[in-house]
Design goal:
Helix content is 62%, strand content 6%. The chain has six helices and three strands, in the order αββααααβα.
């Protein structure tokens, strides 16, 4: 029981929230509502262009049925491949299922990254014409939320 409490406590402490700074105060970009970027709506509503970019951002960040369908198809192909007795069909189904899921992941990630530009444009448009300025750095927040974080180092040792 104590172990379960510790696990829940650890997961509650590590919330990944994007933060913007307005008037030297931190504001959560993604509030508790289901809409991403809703924490900035109060400020971005003051500018029509910024509000339209925010609305576009929120519309495009919702649930996307083709991604769910493609992921389900990929999972189904992999599962069917595991239960298939023919080795040639099994290999084909496993490879096609994994490829479908990989393609789905890259398409979804590309759409998500492209949509983030709408939020950045909304903040830029607001900052052009309004005060207080919104300071939002996607690079700082990206380190917390990136799925892949690669660090590459090359080295060569010489011995004679």
């Amino acid at each position: 029981m104590f172990l379960i409490y510790q696990i829940e406590h650890a997961s509650a402490v590590e919330t990944c929230s994007r933060v913007a700074i307005i008037n030297y105060q931190e504001v959560l970009v993604d509030s508790n509502s289901s809409d991403k970027g809703e924490g900035l709506r109060y400020h971005l509503e003051k500018d029509e262009v910024a509000k339209s970019y925010l609305d576009t951002y929120q519309k495009n960040s919702g649930f996307f049925w083709p991604n769910a369908a493609l992921g389900t198809i990929g999972t189904g192909l992999i599962m069917y491949g595991f239960f298939n007795d023919n080795p040639e069909d099994k290999r084909l189904l496993l490879i096609s299922g994994a490829s479908t899921m990989l393609l789905n992941f890259f398409v979804a990630k590309t759409l998500e990254i492209t949509n983030e530009e709408n939020l950045n444009r909304a903040i830029e448009e607001y900052n052009k014409r309004n005060l207080p300025k919104i300071y939002f750095s996607p690079e700082e927040n990206r380190s917390q939320s990136d799925f892949f974080q690669y660090k590459v180092a090359l080295s060569k040792t010489w011995s004679f």
